[in-house]
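Q: What structure does this chain adopt?
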Amino acid sequence: MPLSFSFMVLASCSVSRDPLRTQIRQLQKGIIKDDTSYVYNLPFAYNKSYCLVQGYFSRYSHKNRAALDFKMKKGTLVFAARDGIIIRIKEDGYKGGWNRKYRPEGNFIVVQHTDGSRAGYWHLQHDGALVNIGDTIQQGQLIGLSGRTGYALFAHLHFLVWSVNNTGQRQQTATRFRTSKGIVYLRPFRRYRNIKF
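A:
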């Protein structure tokens, strides 16, 4: 086992106590059903498939995050998972690695949706945003290029959705996706294929 992976496993054995973690596990396993939440597109090209290497509240760097990591080579095309308006972009970072000192280097795009929720697309390559602040985008539109900037062990796309409540606090949101396997809550260590609908 590579040293970096061994360290990652040993350093992250604790699990989040966030009640959302339990709810997400039940949704993923079909113990509870949800047919009301928004259905997102996978954030990559149609007919392509990528492995989800880290899921919601995973034991590695997501133990307190309802976020998803898709393993992708640098320069992979990133597409909008939902319609919205671009409200933040960072694309001037060059560096990345498995050290918290690289966090400020992480490039990203943040999209605001009509219901007030937001989606973040992280670890984009340098100059990897193909949209501008204020642009209105459509679900399935090309918006960026994946990379390995910021706190990242390898090249991947980090995707998460959140909303901000009345007190200004972030509320993480689990998301359903349209896949070749149906509409599902994604689970780690599985490949998912994006399909047109």
